Each structure stands twice: as structure tokens, then as C-alpha cells.
Amino acid sequence: TPNVLLPEVRGHLPSDLRDTSDTVKFTWLGHATVLASINEKTILFDPVFSESAGPVSWVVKRYQPPAISIDELPSIDFIVISHDHYDHLDMKAIKFFRESHTRFLVPLGVASHLEHWGIRRDRVIEFDWWQTRDIAGISFTCTPAQHFSGRTAPLAMQKTLWSSWALRTEATSVYFSGDSGYAGHFKEIGDRLGPFDLTFIDAGQYHERWRQVHNLPPQVIDACNDLRGDILVPIGWGIFTLALHDWYEPPVEISSRSFKIGATVAIPKFGEWVDINQELPDKKWWEPLID
Fold it and tell me: How far apart (Å, rounded) are the C-alpha atoms in residues 110 and 72?
């Protein structure tokens, strides 16, 4: 856990947020929560805004409040969920959208959680792997991941599907990994749906014993190459401590490895907005904070 608050840009929303007919704009809010504007629509991936990522408030507490609070969010068109673990599916965040017109795109079985929390079923679309829906000029494809699911009792494990997501418009393409270990699905997704302008890839909470369900740092680069990805944004780290590695190890490892092979990596501060057609953030903001 860091000794100080990590750098952030608090509460900022670009005035031209939805001006994205030919680009993608996004901000990373830590861990796997990403707010993006794609084809003039706002999309929120794996929104977690609670103080903890566990069944009780004192388990897996976050380092600091979200750089953009849930009350400061713009109107959200789509919420995309990768799987139902607490650090990706936040009950309090979902309940915030009960009275909105936001639509939810989820893997098989996850709709049952949302319905239980008060989301009308007609606002939720469930997907199996490789299913595609074209909505508002965006092709959403639920793609494979190597992970698992379940929230509480062991008997509830593996009752819902886990996934990654591929989004494509006439002008841009985005991949969001959720949680995944490295395996052949990355290449299959790249072959079938790539290349991708922007890839958000699981790069945190890893351990050698967990390599089946989380990428190790070298595998993050391999996954991006397999996907035929252009810009790599490592996600799944920051905000929560779920593994034994130092909080800063993911950006240190990924940035150094990507530099060696000339890959394009963007690691913005929490809440910092990135336009993929503009200059990408390149400052190693974590370096002064390393013990």
C-alpha cells in the first residue's frame, strides 16, 4: 500500500467528452474501472466506487477515493461488466444507476445480480463468448478470458460467465480484458477481431501461483502483441491490494519491458483524460513515490 495519495486529476470532465466520432477518449479511475467515450457514447467498464472490494467494508479497502466520484460522472450510456468478483462488480455502484437509462452489457448469468439489486431486466443484455450486438454504432463482442467467477459461498462459484470485451466502430477499436491469465484466447481474439487501437489489459494482482487467472508482467506484453494492439493501458492495479507485489511493480515492469520492444504504453494518473489521437501521457509519475 502506498504511503501517500497517488497522483490524480480530481473531478475533471472534458467539455468535448462526446466528440469522439473518430477517436476514443478515456480516463482510468484505478484498478479496472475505466470511463470512456467511444463513437459519441459514454461507456463505463467495471465500475467500482465503494470503499472496499469485498463482502464487508473492512476487507480490501481502497487507497483513496475515486478521482471522479460517482455523483460527478456524466450521463452513462453503457456499463460493461467483465465478471462478478467484488473488485469488478460493485453492488453500490450498480444501485446508483437504478433510475437511469443506462444499459448494461454483461456475460451470462450476471443479469441475476443486477435484477436482485433493482435493475430492470430489459436494461440488461447478456452475452455468451463470441456473441456480438451492434448498438448505437458500436459493435460489442463478448470475448473469452481465462479466469473464474463467484462472490460468496463456494457453492456459488462458477455460476456466472467471465469475459473480456471487444468494441469496434467504423473508426476505432477497443479491447478490455477484465481479469485473465495468459493463454491462446488473446491470439484468437486478435485474429478474429483485431487489430485494436487501444487495449486495456490485466496487469496487476499477479503471483506465479495465480498465472492461470492473472497475467504476469511479460505476458501483458505478449497479450498485447497477440491482440495486435497499438496502445497498451495496463489495468488491474492501483486502488486495491490483492496480491503480494508492491503497488508500483506493475507500471515499473510494464513500462520497462515495453520500452525494450518499442511498444506504446499509456499509464495516466487516476482521472487524467487521454485522447488516443493526441499526445499520450509519458511521464513516469510513480517513480518519485517508490520507497
Answer: 26
Q: How confident is the prediction along the chain (291 residues), in pLDDT tens digits per residue? A: 898 999 999 999 999 999 999 999 999 999 999 999 999 999 999 999 999 887 777 678 899 999 999 999 999 999 999 999 999 999 999 999 999 999 999 999 999 999 999 999 999 999 999 999 999 999 999 999 999 998 865 555 678 999 999 999 999 999 999 999 999 999 999 999 999 999 999 998 888 887 888 899 999 999 999 999 999 999 999 999 888 889 999 999 999 988 777 789 999 999 999 999 999 999 999 999 997
What amino acid occupies position 181?
G
Rounded-to-integer distance, Cα 46 and Cα 39, Å: 19
Give the CA distances from residue 249 to residues 34, 199, 224, 234, in Å, rounded to whole numbers and listed in that order: 20, 20, 19, 11
Q: Find, among 173, 183, 159, the residue nearest to 39 by Cα.
A: 173
What are the strands of the beta sheet with 41-45, ordered from one edge? 124-127, 103-107, 78-80, 41-45, 34-38, 24-28, 273-275
CA distance 163 to 188: 14
pTM of the model: 0.96
DSSP 215-240: --HHHHHHHHHHHTEEEEEEESBSS-
Residue 61 DSSP symbol: B
Given a contact cutoff of 8 angstroms between Cβ atoms, the answer to whether 202 and 214 are in contact is: yes
Q: Amino acid identity, residue 151?
A: R
Q: At what angle do helices 217-227 and 185-193 cross, to 10 degrees?
A: 30
